[in-house]
Automatic annotation (TrEMBL):
Belongs to the glycosyl hydrolase 25 family. One of its GO terms (cellular component) is extracellular region. CDD domains: GH25_CH-type (cd06412). Gene3D superfamilies: Glycosidases (3.20.20.80). Transmembrane segments: none annotated. One of its GO terms (biological process) is killing of cells of another organism. Residues 1-41 form the signal peptide. PANTHER family: LYSOZYME. This is Lysozyme. It comes from Streptomyces xanthii. It is an enzyme of class 3 (hydrolase).
Amino acid sequence: MSRMRNVTAAAPSNRRRRLASGALVASQILLLALPAVSASADDTGQPAPDRGTAFMGEGVLANEGIEGVPVETRVVQTKGVDVSSHQGNVAWSTLRKSGVKWAYVKATEGKSYRNPYFAQQYNGSYQNGMIRGAYHFATPDTASGTKQADYFVNHGGGWSKDGKTLPGVLDIEYNPYGSTCYGKTSRQLVSWIRDFLKQYERRTGRDAVIYTSTSWWKQCTGNYSGFAATNPLWIARYASTVGQLPAGWKFHTMWQYTASGPTVGDHDKFNGAPDRVKALANG
């Protein structure tokens, strides 16, 4: 999800971010240095970042770029953010005062990475009156969907009906470490996603939210429509409108509409008033 830096304490020095070459950059975006490279490269030929450093929307930004600064719509929208280790210790009280009502925090990636700032970010948002949840960055080429769902639930991705805990999110998007579709066919990826979602529901009693972009979903799942009836959609599109949604979904629940500067995580809107955010938390 998010790729921004710490607002109160220095984030790890090797947590740098990549932006798409030639992308139009909105006023909120900062161009930062490339991350430490690994031995492999992604489909664009760019050096791959270190494992574990992926954030929600990294692949979307690199592959789809930015189309413009978002505009407001007539539908009531509720401001939110998503953060990862790139933010370090977040100043949640400042974000709360700015009107942010909800937040998602990266908990895990694959079946070995845990966000070292998770406790401060997850608990801090809660303590400052936000409704918050956790997300898992999927790497289908490293372990099964079932194993990654278990790892997520075991390390921060659980759910409780306290009115302030949102269901977990499966962040499934462009692979920042290699092949766009993780070396899998559309059928194999759909099966992987299904295994993750089923195991998450078994463990928590909740249907996970799916975070993705329409372009990636079409390319890598064959625009599969089978999850729309049960799993809320968090769409990633850095433009003035949400645009076309993946097959099956009639509407989006959340929209990541732009990446931002170093003071906060990526900007998001919930498609409804604050009471609808709480309704999602309560299940």
